[in-house]
Design goal:
The structure holds 2 protein chains of 2 kinds.
Chain A (H helix, E strand, L loop, with lengths): L17 H24 L18 H32 L1 H14 L8 H11 L3 H30 L3 H9 L4 H35 L1 E4 L2 E4 L3 H10 L3 H30 L16 H8 L1 H17 L17 H33 L2 H37 L2 H16 L6 H11 L3 H4 L2 H5 L2 H13 L3 H9 L4 H35 L1 E4 L2 E4 L3 H11 L2 H34 L3
Antiparallel strand pairs in A: 1-2, 3-4
Chain B lengths: L5 E11 L5 E12 L4 E5 L6 H8 L7 E6 L2 E2 L7 E4 L11 H12 L3 H14 L15 H13 L5 E5 L7 H16 L7 E6 L2 H7 L2 E6 L4 E7 L11 H16 L24 H12 L6 E3 H8 L3 H13 L3 E4 L2 E4 L1 H8 L2 H15 L1 H12 L4 E3 H9 L4 H18 L3 E3 L4 E3 L5
The chains are: A mainly alpha, B alpha/beta.
Chain lengths: 576, 430
């Protein structure tokens, strides 16, 4: 199964529409607003310091539980966001025009660099300071989960077969009932895969967001992330290994207890049954399904749920569909447009003021140059990862037994928060006195390269047996086989994986280009390091600048390179 | 006398076109459905019959005219009008029972009654024992039975059927039709009237009390044919055959106006072209040229012989007519002299003849060729022609028409088309 493409749907039309520009402005305005607000809220908070007192491994289960809980809360928030935002985008043509580009650009904002700002913001908002830090951490995790889930849901809603949609209307289902009987079930399989992706991605954030220092303030929340931060400070390699081990177990439990059952359950919602595809299995799901006790416990809730499906006035037929006159809709669109333009104008004004206040042209040039340095790293790393993983992925994918073994491992590795491994790599760099500009770079792709691998495996698995038989029949071998059969067949899948990997690498650069081991500090030249430095210095103007420039880089690379490549691959090489 | 169940007056439906104009789908539709009637809407793809069905059910709103159901205007999905869909439209994640219960739940009935009525409907339609099955476990015929049960369980006054048998194989479809007619005849169905959309002439004659014949582009009712044969009807009955023949004549004569009966209607630059492959056309010519037809065939007989439905055969026959390779008259198709020559030829000569006819009889092909010749590099983008077509037809039709002419142009080697660059050119790869 392939995850959906993390770029906006719809035909490839032009590089940037005016809606993209608007969306970018709005997001920029929001960043500036948060940065500005945090700057003023910053001072009274210097005292807070709450961190795990010990590196005792016996505390790890508790820390792991707290880390996990943060993720679950963020997941619930992401689901609520998905159900509302994506539904609005899919059902309201006027809203859609702004909401989709907005989501597209939100995805490109490296929120990892912004955790510092949100920490300060949320701590000031919340009554208790620890609670504020918790909010900030959860918010950071939320931002790493929500966008692609919302995209997946939006794309599913747009592809609901017309006849099913007509059936719900013909039989007078209320919008609420329709949502739960048609929209959600139809979107469920894709959504669950995206939830898994989101979870994988967000381990990285949860770990990074637990120990934050802004200026002189250090905020640490009890959890695996702050445990590892403490271990780094103490140069305690054993503690690092304990943390890694704990994480492996946590992810394994997560996979077995949450996602496998969900995938097995969601299989019933699959619209087309691909022939030959095995139904996913899960022992937890089987136990739950067969248990009478569970059935009895859940039955009352099912009945209550059913009650919400009742129309408000059962005696009356379904209300007639409001006949939307073209003029009425036009007026609404006009008003909405006015508001959006007004907001964009405010955002622009705020940004300009903010920029004049604390940013010079030289700063902008610096960030652009540093951005190019990080871009070079991302390009080289993606190219290297592709050269390594594409052949391996194809090799594995055409061997079903190998694929069955490797695929779960690759997905597992993608879920593992690579930043836990950073200390090990960094300690090696320190010990051997290697150049940080080169050797810190691989950290950026440590966690994201697996997306390339498992997408390529999925692509190779999907090559029809007949096509492979043709290859054998005509003795197509060696380079010709790769050029004519394997590479074209996996290209759409590869592009999907590479887009995710490259986006993730940009984000990771913020924690990967700067690393420390005890009191040794390593630093590469790049935009990620720049953002990290400015965070340490508590310079909110420059944090916002760095993030804005990085978002711009990601958006431009997506539009200029990945999106055209994806549509080309999709049009030319889509099988069947 | 009872009032009509359904009264449609001056109905008109159109969609906005790319150039700001509108694409007319239905025009001036008048229709009454009385108690106890099965009315068939028969027409070709693009004649707007399915659109009409959606207007009746309130799933979409017309731009002009009225739909009145039991004296009330329909302006939203009406309770009492239920639909059976071509692709079944079952929810794959609900069991048979849950699918059938859906409409009742939406009515907000108490749970015991929902269950009782759903089980009764399942029983009636012959789905006993399948209550807990999921749609994917069922064959096409059983799935459509679920579709019927789901529609009947809400006790609608009017049942709308949108080509309900066309996704089924011949035998299954026949069983389902017979079962339905039997229940209907015995008065066991909780419905008062039926509207059936179909493109299958025999199906219409088998099931309907009245057949409304639709023309295409835009859809209009061109004739109203009562079918007075007694149920159960026999396909081999001479009267049945006559009726089928009569409808074939009506459907093929339709396009030619009264002044030009027998000759092909004029094809213009902006005629919507059918996507019929050159191979299919050659195949039909060969069949016609060979015994037992020897150049002339009765269309229903030909359809039977080729095991094709009218909707599949007619576009091919009409393409031959457009190329002046055959003539259609009075339900018969006859090869022209050119058509007979074509049948005798080898592949290369056929291509040449096809090219000649294409350029002479299909103005769009000639137009493309001329534009390419006029340009110095002999290349023109697809969008150039697409834009031109879209001023006169819907985007979808324009795309189809261009695809049709590309396929013919390639076969005839009168121009080449590169799908990667989306460009026409004069050079053929050698």
């Amino acid at each position: 199964m392939r995850v959906n493409v993390p770029i906006s749907a719809g035909a490839w039309a032009g590089l940037f529409s005016r809606w993209d520009v608007l969306a970018f402005l709005l997001i920029l305005g929001l960043l500036v607003f948060l940065g500005e607000a945090s700057r003023h809220l910053f001072e009274p908070l210097t005292a807070l310091q709450q961190q795990p007192t010990s590196l005792d491994p016996r505390n790890l289960p508790e820390y792991a539980a707290r880390t996990t809980l943060r993720m679950l809360i963020a997941m619930v928030a992401s689901l609520i966001f998905t159900f509302t935002y994506a539904t609005l985008a899919a059902k309201n043509k006027t809203a859609e025009r702004l909401l989709v580009p907005l989501l597209d650009i939100l995805q490109s904002v490296p929120i990892l660099g912004f955790i510092s700002v949100t920490v300060v913001f949320f701590m000031a908002l919340a009554p208790g300071r620890v609670l504020g830090a918790e909010f900030a951490s959860i918010f950071a995790i939320f931002t790493s989960q929500a966008w692609n889930m919302a995209f997946s849901f939006y794309q599913s809603l747009r592809t609901i077969p017309t006849e099913l949609e007509e059936a719900t209307r013909n039989f007078g289902l209320t919008p609420w009932m329709r949502f739960w009987r048609l929209d959600v079930p139809f979107a469920m399989p894709q959504l669950i895969w995206n939830m898994m992706m989101s979870m994988s991605g967000s381990w990285f954030f949860v770990v990074a967001s637990e120990a934050i220092s802004v200026g002189n303030t250090t905020v640490t929340l009890p959890g695996i992330g702050s445990y590892i931060a403490l271990a780094i400070e103490h140069r305690d390699l054993v503690a690092v290994c304990w943390a890694i081990g704990t994480m492996l177990i946590v992810i394994f439990i997560y996979d077995q207890v949450l996602f496998r059952p969900l995938v097995a359950w969601a299989d019933r919602f699959r619209f087309e049954q691909e022939p030959g595809a095995l139904a996913p299995e899960s022992w937890v799901f089987d136990v739950l399904r067969r248990s009478r006790l569970i059935e009895r416990l859940t039955a009352p809730f099912a009945v209550l749920w059913q009650l919400t499906f009742r129309p408000h006035r059962p005696d009356k037929p379904a209300a007639p569909m409001p006949r939307i006159s073209a003029i009425g809709e036009g007026r609404f669109a006009f008003q909405a447009g006015l508001i959006v333009f007004a907001l964009a104008a405010i955002a622009l004004w705020q940004t300009v003021r903010f920029a004049i206040e604390g940013i010079t042209l030289a700063d902008v040039m610096t960030t652009l140059v540093l951005g190019l340095a990080t871009l070079a790293r991302v390009v080289v790393l993606i190219a290297m990862a592709s050269v390594v993983w594409v052949p391996i992925g194809v090799w594995v994918g055409v061997r079903p037994r190998a694929a069955n073994l490797v695929q779960p491992v690759a997905q597992f590795l993608a879920a593992f928060p690579a930043n836990l491994l950073f200390p090990i790599v960094v300690s090696i760099i320190v010990a051997w006195k290697l150049s940080p500009n080169i050797w810190l770079s691989p950290l950026m792709i440590l966690g994201t390269q697996w997306y390339i691998l498992f997408n390529v495996i999925a692509g190779a698995t999907a090559i029809p047996n007949e096509l492979r038989a043709v290859g054998m029949n005509f003795r197509v071998r060696g380079w010709l086989w790769w050029r004519r059969i394997a590479l074209p067949a996996v290209l759409p899948y590869y592009v999907t994986g590479a887009i995710t990997a490259s986006g993730g690498s940009w984000n990771a650069s913020i924690v990967a280009e700067v690393a420390s081991w005890g009191n040794e500090h390593l630093q590469a030249d790049g935009l990620g390091a720049y953002i990290a430095q400015q965070t340490d210095a508590g310079n909110f103007h420059k944090i916002v600048l760095g993030i804005a420039v990085m978002s711009l880089f990601v958006v431009v690379v997506n539009r200029l390179f990945w999106r055209p490549l994806y549509y080309y691959a999709e049009r030319k090489f889509r099988l069947g | 006398m009872t009032a009509a169940l359904l009264d449609i007056h001056g109905l008109r439906q159109a969609f906005p076109r790319a150039d700001g104009g509108e694409h007319l789908v239905l025009e001036g539709v008048e229709l009454q459905l009385n108690q106890g009637q099965i009315v068939g809407l028969l027409g070709r793809t693009g004649s707007g019959k399915s659109t009409l069905l959606r207007l009746i059910s309130g799933l979409s709103q017309p731009v002009g005219g009225t739909v009145t159901y039991l004296g009330q205007p329909v302006n939203g999905p009406a309770a009492g009008i239920a639909m059976v869909f071509q692709s079944f439209a079952l929810f794959p994640w609900l069991t048979v029972l849950e699918n059938v219960q859906l409409g009742l739940e939406a009515l907000g009935l108490p749970q015991p009654e929902i269950r009782k009525r759903a089980l009764a409907a399942i029983d009636l339609i012959g789905l006993d024992g399948y209550e807990s099955a999921f749609p994917r476990e069922l064959s096409g015929g059983m799935r459509q039975r679920v579709g019927f049960a789901r529609a009947l369980v809400v006790h609608p006054n009017i049942l709308l059927m949108d080509e309900p048998f066309s996704a089924l194989d011949v035998l299954t479809a026949e069983t389902l039709r017979t079962d339905f007619l039997e229940l209907w005849g015995e008065g066991k169905l909780p419905i008062k009237g039926v509207i059936l959309v179909t493109h299958n002439i025999e199906e219409a004659v088998l099931m309907c009390d009245r057949i409304l014949l639709f023309s295409s582009n835009p859809g209009r009712i061109v004739s109203d044919i009562p079918v007075d044969l007694k149920q159960p009807r026999n396909r081999l009955d001479p009267q049945f055959r006559d009726m089928v023949e009569k409808i074939y004549v009506a459907m093929t004569a339709r396009k030619a106006g009264p002044t030009q009966i027998g000759t092909a209607p004029a094809t213009t630059m902006f005629t919507v072209l059918p996507r019929v492959s050159a191979n299919l056309m050659s195949g039909l010519i060969e069949t016609l040229a060979a015994p037992p037809f020897n150049g002339k065939a009765d269309l229903p007989v030909l359809a039977d012989e080729l095991a094709m439905e009218s909707d599949e055969l007619l576009p091919v026959a009409e393409s031959l007519q457009m190329f002046r390779l055959a003539e259609i008259e009075g339900g018969d198709i006859k090869l022209t002299d050119i058509g007979k020559q074509f049948a005798e030829m080898g592949t290369d000569d056929r291509k040449k003849l096809f090219a000649r006819q294409l350029l002479a009889q299909v103005p769009l092909a000639m137009h493309i060729r001329r534009v390419l010749q006029e340009r110095t590099n002999h290349v023109a983008p697809k969008s150039r022609f697409l834009d031109e077509l879209e001023d006169h037809m819907s985007t979808e039709d324009a795309e189809h028409t261009l695809r049709a002419v590309i396929a013919w142009g390639r076969f005839a080697e009168v121009f080449a088309y590169d799908d990667d660059s989306e460009a026409f050119s004069l050079e053929n790869p050698t």
